[in-house]
User: Fold Pickpocket from Anopheles melas.
Amino acid sequence: MAPVFPLHRLPHVAFYKEQRIKAAISRERVSFTENLREYCLNTTIHGLKYIGTVSLTLCERAYFFLTFLVVTACSIYFISNVYIKWQSSPIIIGLNPIATHIRNIPFPAVTICNMNQLRREAAERIEQNTLEQTVLQSICLLDGDFNDTQFDGKWSEVKQMLLSATQPCSALLKGCRYAKQPERCSEIFQSIFTDEGLCCTFNTLDTVYMFRNATAPSNFPTEMGSSSGRFRPILWTPENGYAEEPSNASYPRFIAGPGVTMGLAMVLDANASDYFCSSTSSVGFKIIFHSPSETPKITDYAQYIPVGTENRIIITPKINDAAHQIRKVAQAQRQCVFASEANLSYYSVYSRNNCELECEAKLILENCGCVLYYLPKLYEDTKICSRANARCYEQIRSSIAFSANTSISCSCLPGCFEISYVPDLTTTELQVGRFDIRETLLDHVKDEVYAKENLALVYIFVKDTYYRSFTKGELVGFTDFLSNVGGLLGLFLGFSIISLIEVIYFVTLRPYCAKRKQQRINQKEHNVEANHLTAARNELLWFGSKPSNTTAIQFLGRPTDADRYDAHDYHLQAGRNAMVKEFATKLKHLAHSRLQQANGWVRNTFRSRRTQLGHGFDQERTGTSYPFYD
Assistant:
């Protein structure tokens, strides 16, 4: 039976095992200090490499650290100023370098009202304490005893009274011409209810495109155009322009050309002898120029046209538009509304004027329970206000007009795309019958006295072919803001996008990649140590005999199953390979020397015994025999 060499567990195996685990964990995890130092030495941000250089003294590193903090604070201060400017005033209004041709600009909508709000002939026929008298008081704003017992506020009745008691457009307009072409006034003008009563308007949008609900009560008592359908309505909006190519047979009409001959000419008749009540102290007309998509406010903003005069009005279109980039800016900052953001209930096309009219109608309806006859009405059965409601609705209107009032107000921003028309009026005395004149619209006028007391000749035209718009754009866009911030960071810190990428790399990607790399190295070292351990075991066992199945023999380096895992942990200690090899070599030399000693002892013993006998094994034996030696 081969000798047994017991394997004793060393007392420091557990300690080596714990140190081995800690060393593996420390190699797998890149320390924060080491990572920060390497970032400071390799980053493109100025000054940090001096902080991470260990060869510098602590005083030098502290100097650069404090300097870095001061420079960073300065950059943050200036960047905050740029950000405040970007947020507080992001919009700038500039003159568009690309001019707009007049063919793409609609001719202004012209609304004309006689200063006489009610014909004397109709007023004298009205009886006392009747519905007509109540409507008359509302139109002329007359004070007195109000009898509302017979007034139910139906729009149909009020509309019929207005149409029968005011001057129709056929009597107001005596002659019309547009772009050198004589026109029938009834074909190009339409009646409209305004705050001055029944007026006449030219070149406005059709009701189909102006109002959202076709069944809602309209301020237009008749349909646009004549029964022959000579002119075809098309859609036009300030933001999108004409929906299709305009022509001479469509409306709203475009500006045909510059000059007085390409504009609108008309003869107006005031019929001064039929005046009953007026909102002014004179005889004549009120005229206003507005966008084709708006309902005008005559009382507050119209101009006067006196009778007995010839008037030339030069129109200058004022176009406001906006760049697409400001859509992302809040309404409170850009101070305008795009068409897609409008939330009007009555009008289809947004404008500030339309918004204010709709807001005024809603406030009066909520507080007074009625609506003035010229304001938007969503429903046919909406009650029309009478003079008995004057105190209520006048208070509401005054509160809306008073800008300092915040309890009742209409916060209507202008449209981002709007067009307005600035008139330049020149007037001279009208002379008829004294000498020959070129104007054909006055051919039928022969009475000089009637002309001076009742008529007015008006020319409306433009003088330029191109007009520039005022465009709202970004004062400081995101690109400009980013450029300013990048310039300040580069000036103070040398910071760039690459510097930001470096920060992300050292915070996330580098620790992860270092951990994965260390894990692969540890696995490789483990495999190499296992291979060396296997080779060492084979060298220990090459000279030993194979143990039998029945005898439990323990060899050095061959632990039992109970000690297998402990021996495995022991072989994982640093330097274990060298210890095993050295111990195996000494044991091998020891066994070899013992075998040589045993072999020499056997040989010497046999030789000594043979010498004592004095006979060699090859000689013939005589006498006594020695079988053991034989």
